[in-house]
């Protein structure tokens, strides 16, 4: 049985950054990413996709406290995690992150890794109203899946709940084509709600059919490199939204700490969703 090391308490970003990096910690809070709301009648929201590589950083050290500190930097409303582990002990990564963020947890594990469940997860400030697991496994390939969670963002002033679909697609081109077709068919037949699809789509080919299909359905979103974290070249992590007008901006989070905490950078998107009418409003 593999034992997890004792974990340190959550540290601030300056304490947790790579000791070899002497650069200042960037001021990259969600508020600075998104700026002021553009118009009345809109509710702002920040959403992140983050492949945390089992909390093993670019220095090959298991340090979930660094992932927790990156999440503190981001201060997002919803975080989709990939390559996250969970187990019966609070020393496992997902339990550790949930304890430090205080967010609701939705797990979507696809296989067992060592003595832990392994796969996808959502951290959300909003209570989940409904959760469905989508099996995206292709025969002969690693098990894959997606979380479909409807969250009660009406608590933050939104006019309706929000559907969040979080995934991690396969490594083979044919596998990804099959998985994207499954996801798009699923979204097209689901109950209509504002929908965010996000995750590590593992798509290296910008001209490939999976990205073209996704852009055709959701409309194109910015191409932002997130991998590898030290010198990002590839936009493996993606965020789409329907309707597209809700999306304000997409950016990778490139703080010194994020560059060492995982082999992927977090991808952060800012949204403005229709706000609920105030009581007594005409």
TrEMBL record:
<feature type="domain" description="Endonuclease/exonuclease/phosphatase">
    <location>
        <begin position="48"/>
        <end position="264"/>
    </location>
</feature>
<dbReference type="GO" id="GO:0004519">
    <property type="term" value="F:endonuclease activity"/>
</dbReference>
<dbReference type="InterPro" id="IPR051916">
    <property type="entry name" value="GPI-anchor_lipid_remodeler"/>
</dbReference>
<feature type="compositionally biased region" description="Pro residues">
    <location>
        <begin position="1"/>
        <end position="11"/>
    </location>
</feature>
<feature type="region of interest" description="Disordered">
    <location>
        <begin position="1"/>
        <end position="27"/>
    </location>
</feature>
<dbReference type="GO" id="GO:0006506">
    <property type="term" value="P:GPI anchor biosynthetic process"/>
</dbReference>
<dbReference type="Pfam" id="PF03372">
    <property type="entry name" value="Exo_endo_phos"/>
</dbReference>
<dbReference type="InterPro" id="IPR036691">
    <property type="entry name" value="Endo/exonu/phosph_ase_sf"/>
</dbReference>
<keyword id="KW-0255">Endonuclease</keyword>
<keyword id="KW-0540">Nuclease</keyword>
<keyword id="KW-0378">Hydrolase</keyword>
<protein>
    <submittedName>
        <fullName>Endonuclease</fullName>
    </submittedName>
</protein>
<dbReference type="InterPro" id="IPR005135">
    <property type="entry name" value="Endo/exonuclease/phosphatase"/>
</dbReference>
<dbReference type="GO" id="GO:0016020">
    <property type="term" value="C:membrane"/>
</dbReference>
């Amino acid at each position: 049985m593999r034992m997890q090391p004792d974990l340190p308490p959550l540290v601030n970003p300056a304490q947790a950054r790579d000791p070899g990096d002497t650069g200042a910690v960037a001021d990259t809070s969600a508020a600075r990413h998104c700026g002021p709301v553009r118009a009345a009648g809109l509710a702002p929201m920040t959403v992140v996709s983050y492949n945390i590589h089992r909390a093993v950083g670019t220095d090959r050290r298991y340090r979930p406290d660094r992932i927790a500190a990156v999440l503190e930097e981001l201060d997002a409303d919803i975080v989709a995690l990939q390559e996250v582990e969970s187990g019966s002990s609070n020393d496992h990564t997902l339990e550790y992150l949930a304890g430090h963020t205080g967010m609701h947890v939705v797990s979507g594990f696809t296989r067992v890794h060592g003595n832990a469940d392994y796969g996808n997860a959502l951290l959300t400030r909003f209570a989940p109203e409904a959760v469905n697991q989508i099996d995206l496994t292709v025969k002969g390939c690693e098990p894959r899946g997606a979380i479909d969670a409807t969250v009660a963002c009406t608590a933050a002033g939104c006019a309706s709940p929000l559907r969040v679909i979080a995934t991690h697609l396969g490594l083979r081109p044919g596998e990804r084509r099959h998985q994207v077709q499954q996801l798009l068919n699923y979204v097209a037949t689901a109950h209509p709600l504002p929908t965010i699809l996000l995750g590590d789509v593992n798509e290296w080919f910008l001209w490939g059919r999976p990205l073209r299909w996704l852009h055709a359905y959701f409309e194109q979103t910015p191409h932002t490199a997130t991998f590898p974290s030290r010198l990002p070249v590839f936009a493996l992590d993606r965020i789409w939204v329907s309707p597209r007008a809700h999306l304000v901006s997409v950016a990778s989070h490139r703080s010194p700490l994020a560059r060492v905490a995982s082999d992927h950078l977090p991808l952060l998107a800012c949204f403005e969703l229709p706000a609920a009418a105030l009581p007594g409003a005409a």
